[in-house]
Amino acid sequence: MKTFEETELCFPQLLNSSCRKTMRPYTFSILIYITLSSISLLTVTLNLLVIISISHFKKLHTPTNLLLLSLAVSDCLVGLLILFQIIIIDGCWFLGEFMCSMYFLLDYIITSASLGTMVLISIDRYVAICYPLHYSTKVTPKRTKACVYLCWICSSVFHCLVLKENLVQPGRYNSCYGECVVVVGHAFGVADLLLSFIGPVIVIVVLYLNIFVVAMTQARALRSHIAALTHEGSVSTNVKKSEMKAVRTISVVIIVFLICLCPYFGVTLSGQDAMLSASSVAFVMCLFYLNSCLNPLIYALFYPWFRKSVKQIVTLKILKSGSCDTNIMYTE
User: Fold this and answer.
1) Of 38, 43, 82, 124, which alpha carbon lies 20 to 30 A from 288's?
2) End-to-end CA distance of the chain
3) Radius of gyration, CA atoms only, the chain
4) Distance from C-alpha of 311 to C-alpha of 52, rounded to nearest angstrom
5) How many CB atoms within 10 Å of residue 195?
6) What's the burial of 43, exposed, middle or buried (CB within 10 Å: 0-12/13-18/19+)?
7) b/e string for 105-138 if b means 16 or more Cβ within 10 A?
8) Which has the closest alpha carbon to 318: 40, 77, 60?
């Protein structure tokens, strides 16, 4: 018969060496498990639809959509990371010290790569709106792919260096068995903050301020000459409207992303030694997870091609021969 004190321990057999569980009412714990499991399933499913859509249909292989594909991959991985958050919801880590370090490494890489992708999306929209005549020559699918690969590689290499000590000696900073903690040195912590958050956010804000200034100038010019537009001018206007719609959509994605990500880095800044406990950042991590679930819903709201491609996937029409050549961008 276990005593009450033993039931509070992650590893009762280790007695004083074991961490204590976070005790919650049973019904509340079940509610948390169900909520996180639902978010995980929804996040993975929705982002897989985005990944399949852009990967399958050739008409969607545009530079902007390739960047959205990179974002969807990171969001899908976030959905899988939620499973680890479910495991440690009671404050106990049972997967070993090395897996703890790998969990944080993946978290760091995915977060950094997501922000890097947001920067690339901002640059893409900046060139499209501010230098439309040079867009097709400067921003190509090949260059976009190279930038995406470089973003993920740099993020992986840099955060392997940031967490090097934790990867070489997993669990060295744990105070008890069942704890999952990593510690980042001050220099690396500052570098990570500048390169993975402050720098990208500044670039995104500056680019979008320029985009909106140029967009508003173009809108006023179009309104002032609307009466004199020819047929060719109407086509140009439709192109401008399409570009502005893309800007609005991406703007919503980026604003929601920053709102969900800022608390995460706020918790990072609050630690004097940049120490993060897996159980102590549950709320901000869930907020970050929620953002990954929201992005595909934003696409469904603003992009007709995404709704059409989902219909093709659900009805299994993508299994037909030649379905990849379907003009999914065509609107009836």
Assistant:
1) 124
2) 70
3) 23
4) 12
5) 17
6) buried
7) bbbbbbbbbbbbbbbbbbbbbbbbbbeeeebeee
8) 60
pLDDT, tens only, 154-181: 999 999 998 888 888 888 888 888 888 8
d(CA 95, CA 123): 40
CB atoms within 10 A of CB 90: 18
**Torsional class of 310: left (φ above 0), alpha (ψ -120 to 50), beta (otherwise):** alpha
The DSSP letter of residue 20 is B
Polymer length in residues for the chain: 332
| Domain 31-324 CATH class label | mainly alpha
Neighbouring residues of 25: CB distance < 8 A, sequence distance ≥ 6: none
CA pair distance 218, 242, nearest whole angstrom:
13
Q: Dump the DSSP string for 111-126.
A: HHHHHHHHHHHHHHHH
pLDDT in tens, 60-84: 999 999 999 999 999 899 889 888 8
Q: Which residue's structure tokens are 């509340």? A: 28
User: CA–CA separation, 56 vs 59, rounded Å?
Assistant: 9
Q: How many CA atoms lie within 13 A of 151 on its CB side?
A: 24
